[in-house]
Design a protein that fits this description.
By secondary structure, the protein is mainly α. The protein has one domain. The longest helix is centred in the N-terminal third of the chain and has 33 residues.
Length: 252
């Protein structure tokens, strides 16, 4: 009988191999590490020194160069966690479960950063550290979802059972992502609309949104480095009885 061909690409099946993923991430890490350092240093200097002050908010607006990348990344990280969880549920892929688990603490940290910088920015802009604005509230819900995933993982001894339970929670929580994105359009909120989008011309001057774009890319590179480091550690923990892991650890 002829062998049945799969519609999935070859690289998808390579991702199912913990050893292949460990080695592949090891090759990517130096490149992303250098990119992260360059982009964040360049973006920080550009935004703090060379970008002009806002005509209304003055220099206080510069926190946008931390707040906006953090807010965008917190949502992207959650979507990746949910997608990886779905892949783990459907194809029983261990590496996908490891990615989903590794996303949670990174995403929670980034969400806290987004909320904290938003509060610091809100004080001089709105006159209050916190208001129950639709976007702020939905971002707080996002943080609670991250913390729920972390707590659920910690409460279960079985990695398989924990991955299944947290994947379901992550998938249910996806409904919060469009609420965060469109809250300023659906409700009358204090929060300003999106700073820039992929489909519309930025409302900010070029000399202000270009360093912001550099910071966004830098944050994503930093996330990639953090995620790969955590996933590689998780692979070593779960595959510690495999011969290739024992041989690797013997060399250290």
């Amino acid at each position: 009988m002829a062998e049945k061909k799969s519609w999935l690409p070859r690289w998808f099946y390579q991702l199912a191999s913990p050893r292949w993923c460990y080695e592949f991430m090891g090759r990517l890490l130096p490149w992303f590490g250098v990119g992260t350092l360059f982009l964040l240093v360049a973006g920080t200097l550009w935004s703090l020194v060379y970008a002009p002050a806002d005509y209304q908010q003055g220099n206080s607006f510069r926190i946008i160069y931390i707040h906006v990348p953090a807010a965008i990344l917190a949502q992207s990280c959650y979507m990746l966690m949910a997608i990886a969880g779905a892949i783990g549920l459907i194809w029983k892929m261990k590496v996908a479960d490891m990615v989903a688990k590794s996303c949670a603490p990174i995403g929670a940290t980034i969400a806290i950063l987004a909320l904290a910088t938003g509060a610091i920015w809100g004080k001089p802009t709105w006159g209050a550290w916190w208001v129950w604005d639709a976007r702020l509230t939905s971002m707080l819900v996002l943080l609670f979802l991250y913390l729920g995933v972390i707590a659920l993982h910690s409460a279960m001894e079985s990695d398989t059972t924990a991955s299944q339970a947290t994947s379901v929670l992550a998938l249910v929580g996806l409904v919060n992502i469009p609420i965060i994105k469109y809250s300023v359009d659906w409700w009358n909120t204090l929060h300003q609309p999106a700073t820039f989008t992929l489909t519309e011309k930025p409302a900010m001057p070029t000399e202000m949104w270009l360093p912001l774009l550099v910071m966004v890319i830098g944050f994503y590179c930093f996330f990639a480095v953090s995620l790969m480091l955590r996933v590689r550690n998780e692979i070593l923990r779960r595959e510690r009885r495999a011969s290739w892991v024992r041989a690797l650890l013997d060399k250290v």
